[in-house]
Design goal:
Two copies of one chain form a homodimer. Chain A is α/β, with parallel strands linked by helices. Chain A has 15 helices and ten strands. Chain A folds into two domains: 166 residues, Rossmann fold (3-Layer(aba) Sandwich); 201 residues, Dehydroquinate synthase-like - alpha domain (Dehydroquinate synthase-like, alpha domain, Up-down Bundle).
Chain lengths: 382, 382
C-alpha cells in the first residue's frame, strides 16, 4: 500500500453555515459568484450568500447548466479575465462546482480552455475557489476533479488538478429542503456508484479503505430504505456527509480503482442527455455481470459485509442482484431504451465515442476493451 | 450536526517513503531533527533520514523520553532559538512528535513553555514541523494535539493548536519491523481507546462517524486476533493506517466526545509511570461499568456492530466484557496493583491530581465528578 494523500478543503458543515464564507474569503479579494439556473434564488441560498458577502466586492455569473458546457463556461472565463477576479464562489451542485473548476483553471490559461480536457494543457495555476454545496452527490466540493461537456461535439470529458480543489466547502443540509425528488435520488445513486468504483475491484487487504467504503454503502442503503424520512434533518445531514466522503479521495488511497461505469455512462449523458446518476445505474449491473470473474472476491465481500447475505457459491451473482434491487427500490432503471436510432446503432455510437476519446481499455485491470464494452452495452441497452 | 474540519497534513504512506522528506522540506530551511533514545539508529531509520537530508542544513536533538518532559524539551527549545531553526522534523512515536509540537510552540514564545499547558499562553504561531512516524499508536503525526509531562511536579497535561499540526507525516510500515512487542501492543490498545473515546458516548445519529469508528474498531479486533501475523507487511500497514485514522479528527467531527479514560489514565502515568496505553486499559472497563446507564445505547450498538453479539437485555454489560476480553487476549491488564502506598492513598493521589488540574467533571456529559472517579478507581485499583 503506497500513497500520498491530503485533503486541504476546509469543511463548514451544518445548518446556518453559509455565513461562514464571510470569513473564508478575504474581503480585499474581488469575487465572482457562479451559479446555475436560479433555484438558489427561490430557496433562500442566494440571499444568504448576498448577506454574507455584503462587505465584499463581487459580481455574478448564472446559467451554468446540468452537465456544464465549455460553451457556457467560457463566458465566465472571459468575465474573470475582464474583471480581474481573485476568488470564485461556486454555489450549486456538482455541475456548478465542476464548471467553476474549469473556469478557475481556464482563466489562468491563454489558449482555449478545452485544451485542459484533451490534456494539451495541464492546470498548475488557477483562480482560488470555494463551494457552497446545494446538492449532495458528486463530492466535487472537496476534491480536485471536474467533468465538462462540449456541446458542439457531444463530448463529456474529465480533468483534475490540486489547483482547482475548493479552499472551503460550505455544507448546510437545509439547502436540500427544496430539492426535487429526482435530484435527491440521483445524489444517492451517484454517491453509491462512487464508492463502488473504488471498492468493487480486486482484494488488496486494505482494511481501512474497505471498512470505510462498506460503512458508506451501508449508510446509502439505509438512507434509501428510510427514503420516506427524507424531510428529517438527520436524514439530510447523513446523506450530505456520506456523499462527500464517497469521493473526497480517502477511501480510494492506495487501492485499485475502476471508473469504467463512469466512462461508459458519460457517453449516455453526452449522446442522450441521461442524468449522470441514471447513466451509472444503467451501465453498472451489466458491467459487473460482464466482469464478474475478476470482481468475484470483492462482490462476495460486499454481499457479506454490506447486504448481510449468507455465503453461497453464487454469492457474487446475488450481490449484483441486490445492487440492482437497490436501484429498482428507488425507481431507478437499470436498462436503457430511450434512443431514437435502432439498438445496434445506439451501441455503435457509444463505442465510437469511447474510441474517439482513447478509452480503449477501461477498469482496474484494463480488461474492459471496446469488445467487452460492446457486450456490456448489449445487455444495458434494450 | 455542526462542525468545521480540515486535515492539512500531507500523508506519505508506504515502504520507502522516508526519502520523501527531501522534497517536503525546502532546502533553504535550517532543520532540527528531534528523536528519542536512539532506536532509530539501530533500525536504519536514522540513516534514511540523513540520506534524505543530505542537501539540507540540519542539526539534531536526541533523548526525548516516553511521556516527554518539559525539562528535556526546553533544551530543544533553546537549540531552536540559538540556531534560528526554521523547520523541525520529529522522528519517532507519539512521545517524540508530541514533544516536538511543544518545542515548535514554545520556541515562538518568550515565557516559560509550561504556560502553554496551563493555558496561560495560547499557541498561535509555531516553527513548522513534519513527522516521520516510527510507532503507530497516538495519531499525533496528523493531528494538532500533544501531551507533555512536567517531571518536577508529576503533572501530565495536554494542549492543541492548528499551528503545531505536522505539515507532513511519513508513514513507512517497515519501521515497525524492529518494534518491541510491548510497544506494538500498546499501539493497538491506544488506537482502540482513541476510537472508543469518540464513539462510546450517546447516540446522535451520525452515520458516517459511527460507521467509520466501527470499521476501525473491527480492524483493531481483527489485527489483535491476527497478532501472530504481525511480521506481515499487510498487518503492519493496516495497523499503521488504522491508528492514524483513529485520531486524525475525522471520526470525532460533530459528535460528543468523552476522553475521561485518558484524563484519569494520565495520572497513572504521571504517578506510577504506567505505559500510556496500559493506563487506559486499567481505567476504561471500570469507567464504562460506572457510566453504563448513560452509555447503554452506544454500548449496545458496539456489541451488535463491532463484536457481532446477539441482542439481549444485558447486551451493554456483555459488550464491556468483550472489551475487557480483548485486552486480556493481548495480555494487557485491566486492573492496577503496582502502587507502593496502600489502596486508599493510591486512590486519593489520583483524585488529588485531577482536582489540582481542574478536572472536576469529566466525560461527554460532564457526569464523571471526582466522587464518580473515586468509584471508578475503587474498581480499577486493586
Amino acid at each position: 500500500m503506497q500513497f500520498t494523500y491530503v485533503n486541504p478543503t476546509v469543511i463548514h458543515f451544518g445548518q446556518g453555515q453559509i455565513k461562514s464564507i464571510r470569513q473564508a474569503v478575504d474581503v480585499s479579494q474581488k469575487v465572482l459568484v457562479i451559479y446555475g439556473g436560479g433555484s438558489i434564488k427561490r430557496n433562500g441560498v442566494y440571499d444568504q450568500v448576498v448577506e454574507a458577502l455584503q462587505n465584499h466586492t463581487w459580481i455574478e455569473f448564472s446559467g451554468v447548466e446540468a452537465n456544464p458546457t465549455k460553451e457556457t463556461l467560457d463566458k465566465a472565463v472571459a468575465l474573470v479575465k475582464e474583471h480581474n477576479i481573485e476568488f470564485i464562489i461556486a454555489v450549486g451542485g456538482g455541475s456548478v462546482i465542476d464548471g467553476s473548476k474549469y473556469v478557475a483553471g481556464a482563466a489562468k490559461y491563454q489558449g482555449d480552455g478545452w485544451d485542459i480536457l484533451t490534456r494539451e494543457h495541464t492546470v498548475t495555476e488557477a483562480v482560488p475557489l470555494g463551494a457552497v454545496l446545494t446538492l449532495p452527490a458528486t463530492g466535487s466540493e472537496s476534491n480536485m476533479g471536474a467533468v465538462i461537456t462540449r456541446k458542439a461535439t457531444q463530448e463529456k470529458l474529465s480533468f483534475g488538478s490540486p489547483a482547482v480543489q475548493p479552499k472551503f466547502a460550505v455544507m448546510d443540509p437545509d439547502v436540500m429542503k427544496s430539492l426535487p425528488e429526482r435530484q435527491l435520488l440521483n445524489g444517492l445513486v451517484d454517491a453509491w456508484v462512487h464508492v463502488c468504483e473504488q471498492y468493487i475491484t480486486m482484494p488488496t487487504d486494505a482494511m481501512v479503505q474497505d471498512g470505510y467504503a462498506e460503512a458508506l454503502l451501508k449508510n446509502l442503503l439505509t438512507l434509501g430504505k428510510q427514503y420516506n424520512q427524507r424531510d428529517n434533518d438527520s436524514w439530510r445531514a447523513n446523506l450530505m456527509w456520506t456523499a462527500n466522503q464517497a469521493l473526497n479521495g480517502l477511501i480510494g488511497v492506495g487501492v485499485p480503482q475502476d471508473w469504467a461505469t463512469h466512462m461508459i455512462g458519460h457517453e449516455f449523458t453526452a449522446l442522450w442527455h441521461v442524468d449522470h446518476a441514471r447513466s451509472l445505474a444503467i451501465v453498472q449491473p451489466s458491467l459487473l455481470r460482464n466482469q464478474i470473474e475478476v470482481k468475484r472476491s470483492k462482490l462476495e465481500q460486499m454481499g457479506k459485509n454490506v447486504f448481510a447475505l449468507e455465503a453461497s457459491a453464487d454469492l457474487a451473482e446475488r450481490t449484483i442482484e441486490a445492487i440492482e434491487a437497490f436501484y429498482h427500490s428507488l425507481n431507478i432503471a437499470t436498462h436503457f431504451n430511450d434512443y431514437q436510432e435502432n439498438k445496434t446503432t445506439a451501441i455503435d455510437n457509444v463505442v465510437a465515442q469511447l474510441e474517439s476519446h482513447g478509452y480503449l481499455k477501461l477498469g482496474e485491470n484494463k480488461a474492459i476493451t471496446l469488445e467487452k464494452t460492446r457486450e456490456i452495452l448489449e445487455s444495458a441497452i434494450q
